[in-house]
Design goal:
The complex is a heterodimer of chains A (408) and B (394).
Chain A (H helix, E strand, L loop, with lengths): L1 H18 L36 H14 L1 H9 L6 E4 H15 L3 E5 L15 H5 L4 E3 L4 H14 L2 E5 L10 H9 L1 H4 L9 E6 L14 H4 L6 E4 L3 H13 L4 E6 L6 E4 L12 E4 L4 E5 L3 H14 L4 E5 L2 E3 L3 H11 L2 E8 L4 H13 L8 E5 L8 H7 L3 H11 L2
Parallel strand pairs in A: 2-3, 2-4, 4-5, 5-7, 6-7, 10-11, 10-13, 13-14
Antiparallel strand pairs in A: 1-8, 6-12, 9-11
Helix pairs in contact in A: 4-10, 6-7, 11-15, 12-13
Chain B lengths: L11 H13 L11 E5 L5 E3 L7 E5 H26 L14 H10 L5 E3 L5 H6 L4 H8 L33 H14 L6 E6 L6 H13 L3 E7 L2 E2 L2 E2 H4 L14 E5 L3 H18 L2 E6 L18 H11 L1 H11 L5 H24 L20 E3 L6 E4 L2
Parallel strand pairs in B: 4-5, 5-6, 6-10, 9-10
Antiparallel strand pairs in B: 1-3, 2-9, 7-8, 11-12
Helix pairs in contact in B: 2-3, 2-11, 2-12, 3-9, 5-12, 6-7
Classes of the chains: A alpha/beta (408), B alpha/beta (394).
């Protein structure tokens, strides 16, 4: 199924960035330019006195700014080709995706704490228990290890459970089940069993939730062979990835973010899925490739606004697929810009960024003009105090500084 | 045929019946006679929060011979595996089941292939009782292509999907939540079948077991948790590991039954009872009082934490294969020589399977990357351009 949707996904990813109306946080993507930047080309230099050195690229930067102002009308014109769609919040998009899949395939069931009668702690499963009944939307006791194991056992027989961890951090209790049984059973049984399970839940640093409720598990799970990991960041890709994950024959871990649940976006009415192994081009550019995922995408886009004002042209890619990496999209971008900045919420040590640096260096070293920079969270437990928590995570100002440093 | 009580092996009743039998029945090595015989289990059942099943078990000559043959085959297979391990043809961990055969055989006799079985790492015999062939067993143990998991699983990862045998798990206790998940799927799909989730006395102290039991009881799942209590969790005796070694009682709200696990008929009776119970009332725990002659695994001599006298004592008094042999002899269904011939046949079968497995090739290097994902992701490595393939990983 992955192969079939490869082409569709690529088109969808590009068109999604063009056709959706954006809120003030996001940038409109400019139409792709035909020429490519040669190695050693000069960039718009921002001098210490704040004046921008105008060169042909600088003029382009100004064009970009005017495009940015005219966001709404541009995107409206671009989106007239697709259906008007409907507006909703990210958690509603997840719910829609889940509901559609449950209607479509009777084998899909949901297991988790408070997903049924309570409607889900983040309202992702709201209304599903009433609609599908207690046998398909199951309230479990607080026993992550065993209900994740039960989900995996059910998946071995052909059911397609969606296991919700109320917070990703709680899934640490189920690590054994996820690693040994979920990831490895297809291999150790010589291909006899597939585990079409989806494990999802919110993670990431929230608003002063404390250390144990602000964990980023993608770095812990990334070594497990046999699983796929995706991170959603917009209502559009949340619904698409949820549906693709449920339809996938492989075990998929879908990482949501606590702070992104109330994002609003207009999504298409028709049935669509997002390719699980594909990255999303958020903003094509020329000067530097910024790779990011989940909440950091919004920090990057905020920084991008500043960067564009300063004359830079960053290319922003939301990698979405954390395992395996979409080295095709990333590679093409590196080939074009020759500079890479990774912005992630994981810890510095052993995070997704660390693996991504290794992967890019191994495969695209010849195309790099500068060492890859990676901005990650500090290697500390997330503190409670608001100011400290802010410093733990990468902020837009740091991203701007990093790009300036990278583009010297 | 006349009812015969099996208290101990005695030739008294055999002598009385001899003239009758020789006149009526034809004594053939493998009898297909299905006239019912009633045997009594060695000890009565003890129960917790439920009724006990009757001590009288219905069987027939055909079943007796099947039991004998299957258990003798398993015994021979495990002993052969022992020699193969010492010859370094089997590496890693090898946990042998000899002594416990009655549990596998008795359970299989009570259920159908629609019912699921999941067990831990001592899985060779359970795999065979679910229909696995000797070649698959030995090839997998030696890491060859013809193994049930294509050589990629090993001793602890035997699976047979088409007969609902779900393995084969190395981490102690992790298979019990999986088993409850299987029971959930059976209830979800309205299969009218049950799942037997086997674990040992060591695993009985795992928290996830009680978590899974709680959920199974809440959701009324047809799950049967079977504790194969061989009294030692690797080197730790049960009284040193469990405050309450009455494992059948530890389900608390879930009913439990204690069964003599060395008596295949007791096991069969208990499993029939449990299946009926689970389909109506939800989870039930069975504790099989059994014993393993080998150590925990091949790296464990098995004699540092128990005396040799204990082992030989159990072998003399409670051996499951001997029990069936005595039953067959006392019912005059075969002579000693005929049974010995069956065992010789089995020995040859096992030796043939081992020879065949030795000839079988090791997996190809490309096999390293198959079955990691269901769709073969990541076997090829592309460069920056997907049209340019950089390397096809071997």
């Amino acid at each position: 199924m992955a192969a079939i949707f490869q082409g569709v996904g690529a088109a969808a990813a590009l068109s999604s960035s063009l056709s959706n109306s954006f809120d003030s946080k996001k940038f409109v993507s400019s139409p792709c330019r035909p020429f490519s930047v040669r190695k050693g080309a000069s960039f718009a230099v921002v001098r210490s006195d704040g004046r921008v050195n105008l060169n042909p690229k600088g003029r382009r930067a100004q064009q970009l700014i005017s495009n940015a102002v005219a966001t709404k009308s541009d995107s409206a014109a671009a989106s007239s080709s697709s259906k008007p769609g409907h507006e909703l919040l990210l958690f509603e998009a997840l719910q829609e995706g889940l509901e559609e899949e449950m209607e479509r395939d009777i084998r899909v069931c949901v297991m988790g704490e408070d997903v049924g009668h309570y409607g889900g702690s983040y309202k992702v499963t709201k209304g599903l228990a009433k609609k599908f009944g207690d046998l398909r939307v199951l309230d479990t006791p607080i026993a992550e290890n065993s209900f994740t194991g039960m989900g995996i056992g059910a998946a071995m027989t052909g059911l397609r459970p969606v296991v919700e961890g109320m917070n990703m951090g709680f899934l640490l209790l189920a690590f054994n089940q996820i690693s040994n049984n979920c990831g490895m059973l297809h291999y150790t049984s010589g291909g006899q069993f597939t585990i079409p399970i989806v494990i999802r839940g919110p993670g990431g640093v929230g608003r002063q939730l404390g250390a144990e409720h602000s964990q980023r598990l993608e770095s812990y799970f990334q070594s497990i062979p046999g699983i796929q990991m995706v991170a959603c960041s917009t209502p559009y890709n949340a619904k698409g990835l949820m549906k693709a994950a449920i339809r996938s024959e492989n075990p998929v871990i879908l990482f949501e973010h606590v702070l992104l649940y109330n994002l609003k976006e207009r999504i298409p009415d028709e049935d669509y899925i997002c390719n699980l192994e594909e990255a999303e081009m958020v903003r094509p550019g020329e000067h530097v490739t910024i790779l990011t995922y989940s909440r950091m995408r919004y920090h990057v886009m905020q920084a991008a606004k500043t960067l564009v004002n300063k004359g830079y042209d960053p290319e922003v890619i939301d990698i979405r697929s954390l395992k395996p990496f979409d080295l095709y999209t990333i590679g093409n971008s590196v080939k074009k810009t020759h500079r890479v900045l990774i912005v992630e919420e994981c810890m510095r040590t052993g995070g997704i960024g660390a693996s991504l640096i290794a992967a890019i260096t191994e495969n695209f070293n010849d195309y790099l003009d500068a060492p890859i920079m990676c901005l990650s969270s500090q290697d500390v437990p997330t503190p409670y105090a608001g100011t400290l928590e802010e410093v733990t995570v990468v902020q837009p100002a740091q991203i701007v500084t990093a790009v300036e440093q990278l583009c010297q | 045929m006349a009812l015969s009580r099996l208290a101990s092996s005695s030739s008294r009743s055999a002598d009385l019946l001899k003239p009758l039998c020789s006149a009526i029945s034809l004594r053939r090595p493998i009898s297909t006679d299905t006239t019912p015989i009633t045997v009594e289990t060695s000890v009565p059942f003890t129960s917790h929060q439920c009724d006990t099943p009757s001590r009288s078990v219905q069987t027939n000559a055909k079943e007796l011979f099947t039991f004998f043959r299957d258990m003798a085959l398993m015994r021979r297979m495990e002993i052969a595996a022992d020699s193969l391990y010492k010859a370094k043809l089997i590496r890693g961990f090898c946990h042998l089941y000899d002594g416990q055969e009655a549990v596998a055989v008795g359970m299989e006799a009570a259920i159908t292939k629609k019912d699921c079985i999941i067990t831990a790492y001592r899985d060779h015999c359970t795999f065979v009782s679910r229909g696995g062939t000797l070649l698959e067993v030995f090839a997998e143990l030696m890491g060859r292509q013809a193994g049930c998991s294509r050589g990629k699983g090993g001793s602890m990862h035997f699976y047979k999907k088409d007969s609902n045998f779900y393995g084969g798990h190395g981490i102690v206790g992790a298979q019990v939540p999986l088993g409850c998940g299987l029971a959930f799927a059976q209830k979800y799909s309205k299969d009218e079948a049950v799942t037997f989730a086997l674990y040992g006395d060591g695993a009985a102290n795992q928290g996830q077991l009680f978590e899974a039991l709680n959920i199974s009881a809440l959701w009324d799942l047809p799950a049967i948790l079977v504790c194969e209590n061989n009294h030692y969790g690797m080197g730790t005796a049960e009284w040193r590991a469990a405050k309450s070694p009455a494992y059948y009682k530890r389900g608390d709200y879930a009913p439990g039954l204690k069964v003599d696990g060395m008596d295949a008929f007791a096991v069969k009776q208990a499993c029939t009872f449990a299946k009926e119970h689970a389909l109506k009332n939800g989870p039930i725990i069975l504790e099989m009082d059994t014993y393993r002659y080998h150590g925990h695994s091949m790296s464990d001599p098995g004699s540092t934490y128990r005396t040799r006298d204990e082992i030989t004592g159990v072998r003399q008094e409670r051996d499951p294969v001997e029990r069936i042999r005595k039953l067959i002899l006392s019912h005059d269904l075969a002579t000693e020589k005929e049974l010995k011939d069956i065992e010789k046949e089995i020995r040859k079968e096992v030796d043939d399977a081992i020879a065949q497995a030795k000839e079988n090739p090791l997996p190809e290097s490309s096999e390293l990357f198959t079955n990691v994902y269901a769709k073969g992701l990541g076997v090829e490595s592309f460069g920056a351009d997907r049209k340019e393939v950089r390397a096809i990983l071997p």
